User: Fold this.
Amino acid sequence: GRAASMAGVNLGDYLDTADRPAELRATPGDWEAIPTTNESYGWDTLDPDHKPVGYFIQLMAKAAAKGGNILLNIGPRGDGTLDPPDVAILTGLSQWMAVNGDSLHGTQRTPLDRQTWGDSTVNGDKIYLHVFNWPTTGKLIVGGLTSPVKTAYLLSDPAKTPLPATRLNAHDVQISLQEWAADPNDTVIVLETDGPVKGEAGRVIDTQWGTNQLLAFDAQTVGTGFTYGDGKTSRYYVDGLETPGNALQWQVRPTQATRMTAAVTYSTLISDVPAGAAFALTYNGQTLTVPITAIKGQPEFGMQASPLRTVVLGDLDMSDLALQPLVLKIAGAKPGTAHVFEVRLTPSYR
Assistant:
């Protein structure tokens, strides 16, 4: 683990990757990240910005999905007691774990990419679906699961009442759901498979509902010289796209043929972004571009960049259901122009 509060200082048999993370990078081997309940590393009467319990529930699931661990940092008050907001967070976590602990304890990283609805963890012949975003369609598609499914049920259901599960094709399974989520923060669905859980990489783009969030952290990098943010709310970025030939790439395939609206989230590091600087997003012979403009606003405390901005690039025709690369580049910008956070794909209603 880390022996000092300096980046890159790690000793022992595991890595410490991030403090106060909101998003996490895939990391080989054993690793952990260290969130705080508010924005401070100890009790601070001037820091009332405690995160909701759902933030930590989902962060635990995200970490376990990538093979990591969460070490929650809580600062006691001067008399040794815990601050009431911290007690509320710990109580909420313990209540969720009492029902859903099997979805984290003893699990391994998932072979599946993140899904529109959330993430997943694996233990033997069980895959646990951590549903952060309950599908409004009543149908949840598990993309990339190649193992035969024997049964599906809510982890919170002692009777293990089967949920209808249908294999759509060699790659995807569809689960029929009730209208409401058992837990608004993370409802866990268990899929028991015939043999060990097996899956394939590739991001399934749900074309019927929700926002398909493609994190820069999860992209394949093409080129050299990339650097990464530490995962905080305003620092889950990848830098280096300004270098000619560099790109971020996600392998994607849609659930149905349709048009999807694409957007990119970024922040700027300079106020004099050159004219002609632009993002270019390419998919299946189509290229969408949008100018990079300097973002005005007060940076967050301790940050060098501007606030985040999400801009629409346009619509993509995703009528081909095959797995294909979605590629993001920057043209006409000098190094150090922008942080790149994510690409979003949502159903187009035009």
In short: The mean pLDDT is 92. Helices lie at 53-65, 84-100. The longest strand covers residues 258-268.
